[in-house]
Amino acid sequence: RAKHSGKNTYRFFDESMDESMQHRVATQRYLEQALSDSEQLQVYFQPQIDSRDGALYGAEVLVRWCRQGQWISPGEFIPIAEDSGQIIELGRWIMEAALRQLADWRARHVHIGKLSLNFSAVQLSNSDVAMELIEALKRHAIPASEVTVEFTETTLMVRSAQLERNLNLLREHAIAIAIDDFGTGYCSLSYLRELQAHYLKIDQSFIRGIGNNDSDDCIVAATIAMAKGLHMEVVAEGVETEAQTSYLTHLGCQYLQGFGFAAPMSAANLEAWLAQTKTPSERKALESSDAD
Ligand code: C2E
Ligand code: MG
Ligand code: MG
Ligand code: MG
Protein backbone atom coordinates (compact mmCIF):
# COMPACT_ATOMS: atom_id res chain seq x y z
CA ARG A 1 0.00 0.00 0.00
CA ALA A 2 1.11 3.50 -0.63
CA LYS A 3 2.21 5.09 2.56
CA HIS A 4 -0.27 7.96 2.49
CA SER A 5 -3.89 6.98 2.54
CA GLY A 6 -4.71 10.55 1.55
CA LYS A 7 -8.12 11.22 0.10
CA ASN A 8 -7.72 11.27 -3.62
CA THR A 9 -4.16 10.86 -4.60
CA TYR A 10 -2.40 7.61 -4.00
CA ARG A 11 -5.11 5.03 -4.37
CA PHE A 12 -4.14 4.04 -7.87
CA PHE A 13 -0.65 3.04 -6.86
CA ASP A 14 0.40 -0.47 -7.31
CA GLU A 15 2.18 -2.09 -4.36
CA SER A 16 5.10 -2.98 -6.57
CA MET A 17 5.94 0.67 -7.20
CA ASP A 18 8.98 1.95 -5.39
CA GLU A 19 9.13 5.43 -3.96
CA SER A 20 10.67 7.10 -6.96
CA MET A 21 8.11 5.51 -9.23
CA GLN A 22 5.32 6.68 -6.93
CA HIS A 23 6.82 10.14 -7.00
CA ARG A 24 6.83 10.13 -10.78
CA VAL A 25 3.27 8.95 -11.09
CA ALA A 26 2.08 11.46 -8.50
CA THR A 27 3.92 14.29 -10.23
CA GLN A 28 2.39 13.35 -13.58
CA ARG A 29 -1.03 13.34 -11.99
CA TYR A 30 -0.55 16.73 -10.38
CA LEU A 31 0.87 18.08 -13.60
CA GLU A 32 -2.25 16.95 -15.42
CA GLN A 33 -4.27 19.02 -12.95
CA ALA A 34 -1.92 21.96 -13.37
CA LEU A 35 -2.37 21.81 -17.13
CA SER A 36 -6.13 22.02 -16.84
CA ASP A 37 -6.05 24.63 -14.07
CA SER A 38 -3.09 26.65 -15.21
CA GLU A 39 -3.31 29.06 -12.25
CA GLN A 40 -0.49 26.91 -10.90
CA LEU A 41 1.80 27.60 -13.83
CA GLN A 42 3.68 30.77 -14.69
CA VAL A 43 6.35 31.84 -17.08
CA TYR A 44 9.34 33.65 -15.63
CA PHE A 45 11.92 35.61 -17.55
CA GLN A 46 15.65 35.88 -16.90
CA PRO A 47 17.45 38.90 -18.40
CA GLN A 48 20.34 38.39 -20.81
CA ILE A 49 22.79 41.28 -20.83
CA ASP A 50 24.88 42.54 -23.74
CA SER A 51 28.44 42.55 -22.37
CA ARG A 52 29.44 45.37 -24.72
CA ASP A 53 27.17 48.03 -23.26
CA GLY A 54 25.41 46.42 -20.30
CA ALA A 55 22.01 46.82 -22.00
CA LEU A 56 19.26 44.24 -21.89
CA TYR A 57 19.56 41.97 -24.93
CA GLY A 58 16.71 39.59 -24.26
CA ALA A 59 15.31 37.11 -21.76
CA GLU A 60 15.10 33.35 -21.34
CA VAL A 61 11.64 31.97 -20.65
CA LEU A 62 11.62 29.56 -17.69
CA VAL A 63 8.51 27.80 -16.49
CA ARG A 64 7.45 27.90 -12.83
CA TRP A 65 5.04 25.60 -11.04
CA CYS A 66 3.52 26.35 -7.69
CA ARG A 67 1.37 23.54 -6.36
CA GLN A 68 -0.59 24.31 -3.19
CA GLY A 69 1.86 26.97 -2.17
CA GLN A 70 4.90 24.83 -2.94
CA TRP A 71 7.33 25.61 -5.73
CA ILE A 72 8.44 22.58 -7.66
CA SER A 73 11.69 22.97 -9.53
CA PRO A 74 11.70 22.50 -13.32
CA GLY A 75 14.84 20.44 -12.84
CA GLU A 76 12.54 18.01 -11.05
CA PHE A 77 9.33 18.05 -13.08
CA ILE A 78 10.55 18.71 -16.64
CA PRO A 79 12.27 15.30 -16.92
CA ILE A 80 9.12 13.66 -15.55
CA ALA A 81 6.97 15.54 -18.06
CA GLU A 82 9.36 14.49 -20.82
CA ASP A 83 9.02 10.90 -19.72
CA SER A 84 5.24 10.97 -19.83
CA GLY A 85 5.03 13.08 -22.97
CA GLN A 86 3.24 15.84 -21.01
CA ILE A 87 6.07 18.18 -21.99
CA ILE A 88 4.36 18.55 -25.37
CA GLU A 89 1.20 20.02 -23.87
CA LEU A 90 3.14 21.89 -21.19
CA GLY A 91 5.43 23.29 -23.87
CA ARG A 92 2.40 24.57 -25.80
CA TRP A 93 1.15 26.30 -22.68
CA ILE A 94 4.56 27.88 -22.01
CA MET A 95 4.95 29.05 -25.60
CA GLU A 96 1.49 30.59 -25.66
CA ALA A 97 1.93 32.31 -22.28
CA ALA A 98 5.34 33.70 -23.26
CA LEU A 99 4.23 34.96 -26.67
CA ARG A 100 1.08 36.51 -25.26
CA GLN A 101 3.29 38.37 -22.80
CA LEU A 102 5.68 39.44 -25.53
CA ALA A 103 2.80 40.71 -27.68
CA ASP A 104 1.55 42.71 -24.70
CA TRP A 105 5.00 44.22 -24.12
CA ARG A 106 5.29 45.11 -27.80
CA ALA A 107 1.88 46.77 -27.77
CA ARG A 108 2.97 48.87 -24.78
CA HIS A 109 6.44 49.60 -26.22
CA VAL A 110 8.17 47.85 -23.34
CA HIS A 111 11.43 46.75 -24.90
CA ILE A 112 12.52 43.35 -23.61
CA GLY A 113 14.46 42.21 -26.66
CA LYS A 114 14.61 38.62 -27.85
CA LEU A 115 12.72 35.92 -25.97
CA SER A 116 14.46 32.56 -25.77
CA LEU A 117 12.25 29.48 -25.43
CA ASN A 118 13.49 26.10 -24.19
CA PHE A 119 12.42 23.20 -26.39
CA SER A 120 12.97 19.71 -25.10
CA ALA A 121 14.11 16.79 -27.28
CA VAL A 122 10.69 15.18 -26.84
CA GLN A 123 8.96 18.25 -28.29
CA LEU A 124 11.33 18.44 -31.22
CA SER A 125 11.22 14.73 -32.01
CA ASN A 126 7.58 13.95 -31.30
CA SER A 127 5.52 16.99 -32.15
CA ASP A 128 5.08 19.78 -34.67
CA VAL A 129 6.52 22.27 -32.24
CA ALA A 130 8.20 24.41 -34.92
CA MET A 131 4.99 24.81 -36.93
CA GLU A 132 3.10 25.59 -33.73
CA LEU A 133 5.63 28.29 -32.90
CA ILE A 134 5.42 29.76 -36.40
CA GLU A 135 1.61 29.83 -36.22
CA ALA A 136 1.65 31.36 -32.76
CA LEU A 137 4.08 34.07 -33.89
CA LYS A 138 1.74 34.87 -36.77
CA ARG A 139 -1.30 34.95 -34.52
CA HIS A 140 0.43 37.39 -32.16
CA ALA A 141 1.98 39.40 -35.02
CA ILE A 142 5.47 38.84 -33.62
CA PRO A 143 8.38 38.79 -36.11
CA ALA A 144 10.47 35.60 -36.11
CA SER A 145 13.52 37.71 -35.29
CA GLU A 146 12.09 38.35 -31.80
CA VAL A 147 12.46 34.77 -30.61
CA THR A 148 15.16 32.15 -30.17
CA VAL A 149 14.68 28.45 -29.62
CA GLU A 150 17.14 26.77 -27.29
CA PHE A 151 17.75 23.07 -26.85
CA THR A 152 20.60 20.98 -25.51
CA GLU A 153 23.22 19.09 -27.49
CA THR A 154 21.74 15.82 -26.27
CA THR A 155 18.65 16.61 -28.35
CA LEU A 156 20.79 16.06 -31.43
CA MET A 157 21.93 12.56 -30.46
CA VAL A 158 18.93 10.86 -32.07
CA ARG A 159 18.33 12.59 -35.36
CA SER A 160 14.81 11.49 -36.22
CA ALA A 161 13.01 12.65 -39.34
CA GLN A 162 10.63 14.68 -37.18
CA LEU A 163 13.54 16.43 -35.46
CA GLU A 164 15.02 17.32 -38.85
CA ARG A 165 11.64 18.60 -40.04
CA ASN A 166 11.34 20.84 -37.00
CA LEU A 167 14.88 22.17 -37.36
CA ASN A 168 14.40 22.82 -41.07
CA LEU A 169 11.21 24.76 -40.42
CA LEU A 170 12.98 26.92 -37.83
CA ARG A 171 15.76 27.62 -40.33
CA GLU A 172 13.34 28.36 -43.18
CA HIS A 173 11.57 30.90 -41.00
CA ALA A 174 14.83 32.41 -39.82
CA ILE A 175 14.14 31.55 -36.18
CA ALA A 176 17.44 31.61 -34.30
CA ILE A 177 18.70 28.48 -32.58
CA ALA A 178 20.75 28.38 -29.39
CA ILE A 179 22.61 25.31 -28.15
CA ASP A 180 21.90 25.16 -24.42
CA ASP A 181 24.28 23.80 -21.76
CA PHE A 182 27.04 23.63 -24.36
CA GLY A 183 29.98 21.46 -23.39
CA THR A 184 28.03 18.96 -21.31
CA GLY A 185 26.68 16.84 -24.19
CA TYR A 186 28.23 15.04 -27.09
CA CYS A 187 27.51 17.17 -30.11
CA SER A 188 30.09 16.70 -32.84
CA LEU A 189 31.66 19.91 -34.01
CA SER A 190 30.88 19.12 -37.62
CA TYR A 191 27.21 18.73 -36.82
CA LEU A 192 27.37 21.94 -34.87
CA ARG A 193 28.61 23.70 -37.99
CA GLU A 194 25.99 22.04 -40.17
CA LEU A 195 23.25 23.02 -37.74
CA GLN A 196 23.80 26.74 -38.29
CA ALA A 197 22.93 27.61 -34.73
CA HIS A 198 23.15 31.31 -33.92
CA TYR A 199 24.11 31.03 -30.28
CA LEU A 200 26.13 28.77 -28.04
CA LYS A 201 25.21 28.89 -24.38
CA ILE A 202 28.21 27.87 -22.30
CA ASP A 203 27.03 25.67 -19.44
CA GLN A 204 27.11 27.23 -16.01
CA SER A 205 29.37 24.47 -14.65
CA PHE A 206 32.26 25.94 -16.69
CA ILE A 207 31.40 29.52 -15.76
CA ARG A 208 31.48 28.57 -12.09
CA GLY A 209 35.11 27.46 -12.44
CA ILE A 210 36.37 30.72 -13.94
CA GLY A 211 39.26 32.08 -11.90
CA ASN A 212 39.67 29.01 -9.72
CA ASN A 213 40.00 26.19 -12.20
CA ASP A 214 42.52 26.53 -15.03
CA SER A 215 40.84 23.94 -17.20
CA ASP A 216 37.49 25.76 -16.98
CA ASP A 217 39.19 29.04 -17.90
CA CYS A 218 40.65 27.28 -20.89
CA ILE A 219 37.40 25.58 -21.94
CA VAL A 220 35.55 28.89 -21.75
CA ALA A 221 38.20 30.73 -23.77
CA ALA A 222 38.39 27.97 -26.39
CA THR A 223 34.60 27.80 -26.74
CA ILE A 224 34.35 31.54 -27.29
CA ALA A 225 37.16 31.43 -29.87
CA MET A 226 35.58 28.49 -31.67
CA ALA A 227 32.14 30.12 -31.73
CA LYS A 228 33.69 33.21 -33.25
CA GLY A 229 35.27 31.10 -35.99
CA LEU A 230 31.91 29.48 -36.69
CA HIS A 231 30.16 32.89 -36.70
CA MET A 232 28.12 32.08 -33.65
CA GLU A 233 27.47 34.34 -30.70
CA VAL A 234 28.03 33.16 -27.15
CA VAL A 235 25.81 33.41 -24.11
CA ALA A 236 27.41 32.62 -20.75
CA GLU A 237 24.99 30.99 -18.31
CA GLY A 238 25.15 31.21 -14.54
CA VAL A 239 27.25 34.39 -14.36
CA GLU A 240 27.35 35.35 -10.70
CA THR A 241 30.53 37.34 -10.01
CA GLU A 242 32.45 40.40 -11.19
CA ALA A 243 35.47 38.22 -11.94
CA GLN A 244 33.41 36.00 -14.25
CA THR A 245 31.87 39.04 -15.92
CA SER A 246 35.20 40.70 -16.64
CA TYR A 247 36.86 37.49 -17.85
CA LEU A 248 33.97 36.77 -20.22
CA THR A 249 33.74 40.35 -21.44
CA HIS A 250 37.48 40.45 -22.02
CA LEU A 251 37.25 37.30 -24.16
CA GLY A 252 34.46 38.82 -26.24
CA CYS A 253 31.57 36.73 -24.95
CA GLN A 254 28.61 38.75 -26.25
CA TYR A 255 25.87 37.93 -23.76
CA LEU A 256 25.76 37.29 -20.04
CA GLN A 257 23.00 35.64 -18.05
CA GLY A 258 23.02 34.84 -14.36
CA PHE A 259 22.13 35.77 -10.80
CA GLY A 260 24.95 38.35 -10.90
CA PHE A 261 22.66 40.42 -13.14
CA ALA A 262 19.21 39.15 -12.33
CA ALA A 263 17.40 35.96 -11.36
CA PRO A 264 14.43 34.70 -13.36
CA MET A 265 11.36 36.77 -12.46
CA SER A 266 7.72 37.35 -13.27
CA ALA A 267 6.72 39.60 -16.16
CA ALA A 268 5.66 42.36 -13.76
CA ASN A 269 8.95 42.19 -11.88
CA LEU A 270 10.90 42.25 -15.11
CA GLU A 271 9.17 45.48 -16.07
CA ALA A 272 9.99 46.98 -12.68
CA TRP A 273 13.59 45.76 -12.95
CA LEU A 274 13.86 47.29 -16.41
CA ALA A 275 12.49 50.61 -15.21
CA GLN A 276 15.14 50.93 -12.51
CA THR A 277 18.06 49.34 -14.34
CA LYS A 278 19.91 51.84 -16.44
CA THR A 279 22.51 50.92 -19.00
CA PRO A 280 26.05 52.15 -18.22
CA SER A 281 25.77 55.00 -20.74
CA GLU A 282 22.45 56.11 -19.27
CA ARG A 283 23.99 55.94 -15.80
CA LYS A 284 26.90 58.07 -16.97
CA ALA A 285 24.52 60.61 -18.47
CA LEU A 286 22.60 60.72 -15.19
CA GLU A 287 25.80 61.11 -13.17
CA SER A 288 27.07 63.98 -15.28
CA SER A 289 23.70 65.73 -15.14
CA ASP A 290 23.78 65.28 -11.33
CA ALA A 291 27.19 66.95 -11.26
CA ASP A 292 25.89 70.13 -12.93
P1 C2E B 1 18.38 25.81 -18.54
O1 C2E B 1 17.55 26.01 -19.76
O2 C2E B 1 19.83 25.58 -18.74
O3 C2E B 1 18.10 27.09 -17.65
C1 C2E B 1 19.03 27.72 -16.84
C2 C2E B 1 18.81 27.39 -15.40
O4 C2E B 1 19.85 28.01 -14.62
C3 C2E B 1 17.50 27.94 -14.82
O5 C2E B 1 17.06 27.01 -13.86
C4 C2E B 1 17.96 29.22 -14.13
O6 C2E B 1 17.11 29.63 -13.09
C5 C2E B 1 19.30 28.81 -13.60
N1 C2E B 1 20.21 29.93 -13.38
C6 C2E B 1 20.25 31.10 -14.03
N2 C2E B 1 21.24 31.89 -13.59
C7 C2E B 1 21.87 31.20 -12.62
C8 C2E B 1 23.00 31.48 -11.75
O7 C2E B 1 23.63 32.55 -11.81
N3 C2E B 1 23.37 30.51 -10.87
C9 C2E B 1 22.70 29.32 -10.79
N4 C2E B 1 23.13 28.43 -9.90
N5 C2E B 1 21.64 29.02 -11.59
C10 C2E B 1 21.23 29.95 -12.48
P2 C2E B 1 15.55 26.50 -13.78
O8 C2E B 1 14.62 27.62 -14.11
O9 C2E B 1 15.40 25.80 -12.47
O10 C2E B 1 15.45 25.47 -14.98
C11 C2E B 1 16.21 24.30 -14.96
C12 C2E B 1 16.10 23.58 -16.28
O11 C2E B 1 14.75 23.14 -16.50
C13 C2E B 1 16.42 24.47 -17.48
O12 C2E B 1 17.81 24.57 -17.68
C14 C2E B 1 15.72 23.71 -18.59
O13 C2E B 1 16.49 22.61 -18.99
C15 C2E B 1 14.47 23.22 -17.88
N6 C2E B 1 13.39 24.19 -18.14
C16 C2E B 1 13.04 25.30 -17.45
N7 C2E B 1 12.00 25.94 -18.04
C17 C2E B 1 11.70 25.20 -19.14
C18 C2E B 1 10.71 25.35 -20.18
O14 C2E B 1 9.94 26.32 -20.25
N8 C2E B 1 10.69 24.36 -21.14
C19 C2E B 1 11.56 23.30 -21.14
N9 C2E B 1 11.47 22.37 -22.12
N10 C2E B 1 12.50 23.16 -20.19
C20 C2E B 1 12.57 24.09 -19.21
MG1 MG C 1 17.84 27.13 -21.38
MG1 MG D 1 21.27 26.08 -19.82
MG1 MG E 1 20.22 23.15 -17.99
Automatic annotation (TrEMBL):
- What is the superkingdom listed in this entry's lineage? Bacteria
Domain EAL: residue ranges: 24-278
Protein name, per record: Cyclic di-GMP phosphodiesterase Gmr
**Organism expressing this protein natively:** Marinomonas aquimarina
Give the residues of the full protein shown: 566 to 857 of 860
